[in-house]
Structure formats: structure tokens, C-alpha cells
């Protein structure tokens, strides 16, 4: 071991003795001060425990960038997966982001549990965006909603709330009656999402027609505080059942309806900022992905070329081949 490595380990052992916390206590403290959703906290804990076991008997404060890099390589080849298959770039990125967040917090000058952040040089795998085409056409949506309507008012309202409000499925199942409220002028109804992604809250406007349907069927929906007292997995099954019934060949999920919400909103004149606020995106560039879909509906170069030579390909060609 080099002199620099010995010096680095000694500094971190001294820091650990000074603050008096074990690695497990540090992880627990980090999780407790994070204002994140329960799902995010659970992922943080899993990633950190896994990395802690990987570098043992080293302490977290003794880890180097090489330890984290080797951990990343093991994730990418599938060492930690149940079936031995490589983990997806998105999963690897999530695990590494948890570790980077921990070390950034622990090495903060105002916290100073660790004297060095070994994760600063670690590159997160690039995650390919595949959700841009995950939307339903108007015809698809009509078929799906008709199938949901046949399944009952609860299932129909679940589909309407997902596509009209752009909710995440976890947000939908957490909605309580008390989360609805009217604005000061009593001209519209709003829904508070108190614990969205990242623990952030936001306000979503409820269209008048949707609210009338929700209010009219309150007694048949639930007698408790939650609007839909079911799990996210049950919602997924409800959507899948309707998809099969109406014979849609697309892989429709509740999140597809969220993408459909954004696509239809932009297509019908909503601004990027409006869609960003409604969906609860922290970064505008996340919302900008939907612009790709909208641009597909606009005139492209081939349309202009066709217009320019239409007189050449019309006439006898149309009579022979059909136009």
C-alpha cells in the first residue's frame, strides 16, 4: 500500500474516531436526514448495504474510487442479480447515485464525517431514454377507456385520473379525499400530491367533468380516507386486463398513461412549464423529451419534397398504382 493510501486511511480513521459513529449508524443517519420518498430511501439503504458488504472489511470511510469502480463493474456483469444476468444501465445508475449521494453528504464541509469523497470521479452509465414512444393514440385511448368502463366505475375513474392528471401510480393509490380542495373563488378543484417523487409536493388541477364523476361516485369508491384503497400492483393488473380486453398490442402500463397525458397536453397547446409543473419534473429537460413525439406530428422534410413534385407523381401513376 502506498504512503498516500496509508495517509488517506489514517485520516478517515481519525475522523471516524472523532465523530464516534459506526458505518451502520452513519448510513442510518444519512437516510434519516434525506427528504425523499419511502421508495427512494429503501433503494438508498439497499445500495449502501450492498456496497458496504462488497468492500468489507474496509470501512466506508476507507473506500477509494477504485472500490466504487470495481463495484460498478460487478453490478454491470450481474454479480448481485438473482439470475446472474447483468443489471440494466438504469439499475446500475440508481445504485451508484445512492453511493454518490451518501459520500457527498458525509464529506460536506459542514458535516465532515469523512475527509474525502471517493465518488467524484465515478461515471454513471448512460441511460437510454425509451419512454418517448410510450404513449397511446386517441384511438388507442378510446378503446382502453371503453374497456375500463365495462370493468366498472372504479376502474374507469382510475384510467381517467391517470391520463387526465398525469399521476404516477404510487401517487394515485395514495390520494385521499382530504387532498382535494377548491380555489379561493370556488371556480376549480385542485388535488395536492403531498409526497411525489423525491418527497416533493405539487398541486394538480382536476378538470370539472372528472371531479363531477368522482363526487357522484364517492360512496361506491371507498368508505375510508383513500380514494382507491388498492396497491400499485392491483392498478397495473386493472390496466392490463383492459388492454387485453380491447386487444391493444402495445405494452400499456399506468405509466404509459402519464406519458400520454404529457403528449396530449403539449399537442393541444400546453407549455413545457405547465407540463413540467403538472408532472412534478424537477428538471425541464426531462419534460423536453416529449417534444420529440410532438415533432413527429409536424411537417417534416419529406412532406415538403412531396409537395414540390406532386405534379410528377400524380396522374398516370395514381391511376396505375393508386394514390
TrEMBL record:
One of its GO terms (biological process) is DNA integration. Gene3D superfamilies: 1.10.150.130, Intergrase catalytic core. Residues 131-303 form the Tyr recombinase domain. Keywords: DNA integration, DNA recombination, DNA-binding. GO terms for molecular function: DNA binding. The keyword ATP-binding does not apply. Pfam families: Phage_int_SAM_1, Phage_integrase. The keyword DNA-binding applies. InterPro entries: CB, DNA_brk_join_enz, Integrase-like_cat_sf, Integrase_catalytic, Integrase_recombinase_N, Integrase_SAM-like_N, Tyrosine_recombinase_XerCD. Residues 21-107 form the Core-binding (CB) domain. PROSITE patterns: CB, TYR_RECOMBINASE. PANTHER family: PHAGE INTEGRASE-RELATED, PROPHAGE INTEGRASE INTD-RELATED. Belongs to the 'phage' integrase family. This is Tyrosine-type recombinase/integrase. The lineage of its organism: Bacteria, Bacillati, Bacillota, Bacilli, Bacillales.
Amino acid at each position: 500500500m502506498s504512503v498516500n493510501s496509508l495517509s488517506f486511511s489514517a485520516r478517515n480513521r481519525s475522523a471516524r474516531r472523532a465523530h464516534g459513529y459506526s458505518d451502520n449508524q452513519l448510513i442510518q443517519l444519512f437516510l434519516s436526514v434525506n427528504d425523499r420518498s419511502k421508495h427512494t430511501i429503501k433503494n438508498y439503504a439497499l445500495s449502501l448495504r450492498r456496497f458496504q458488504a462488497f468492500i468489507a472489511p474496509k470501512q466506508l470511510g476507507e473506500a477509494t474510487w477504485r472500490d466504487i469502480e470495481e463495484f460498478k463493474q460487478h453490478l454491470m456483469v450481474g454479480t448481485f442479480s438473482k439470475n446472474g444476468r447483468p443489471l440494466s444501465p438504469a439499475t446500475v445508475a440508481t445504485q451508484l447515485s445512492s453511493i454518490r449521494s451518501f459520500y457527498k453528504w458525509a464529506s460536506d464541509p459542514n458535516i465532515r464525517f469523512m475527509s474525502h469523497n471517493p465518488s467524484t470521479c465515478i461515471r454513471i452509465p448512460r441511460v437510454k431514454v425509451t419512454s418517448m414512444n410510450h404513449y397511446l393514440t386517441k384511438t388507442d385511448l378510446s378503446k382502453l377507456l371503453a374497456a375500463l368502463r365495462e370493468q366498472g366505475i372504479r376502474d374507469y375513474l382510475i384510467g381517467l385520473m391517470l391520463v387526465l392528471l398525469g399521476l404516477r401510480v404510487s401517487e394515485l393509490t395514495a390520494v385521499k379525499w382530504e387532498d382535494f380542495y377548491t380555489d379561493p373563488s370556488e371556480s376549480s378543484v385542485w388535488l395536492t400530491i403531498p409526497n411525489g417523487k423525491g418527497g416533493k409536493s405539487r398541486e394538480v388541477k382536476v378538470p370539472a367533468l372528472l371531479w363531477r364523476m368522482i363526487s357522484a361516485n364517492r360512496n361506491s369508491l371507498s368508505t375510508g380516507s383513500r380514494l382507491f384503497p388498492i396497491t400499485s400492483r392491483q392498478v397495473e393488473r386493472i390496466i392490463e386486463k383492459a388492454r387485453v380486453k380491447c386487444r391493444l398490442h402495445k405494452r400499456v402500463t399506468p405509466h404509459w398513461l402519464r406519458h400520454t397525458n404529457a403528449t396530449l397536453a403539449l399537442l393541444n397547446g400546453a407549455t413545457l412549464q405547465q407540463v413540467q409543473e403538472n408532472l412534478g419534473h424537477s428538471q425541464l429537460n426531462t419534460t423536453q423529451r416529449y417534444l420529440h413525439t410532438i415533432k413527429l406530428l409536424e411537417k417534416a422534410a419529406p412532406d415538403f419534397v412531396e409537395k414540390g413534385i406532386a405534379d410528377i407523381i400524380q396522374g398516370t401513376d395514381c391511376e396505375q398504382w393508386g394514390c
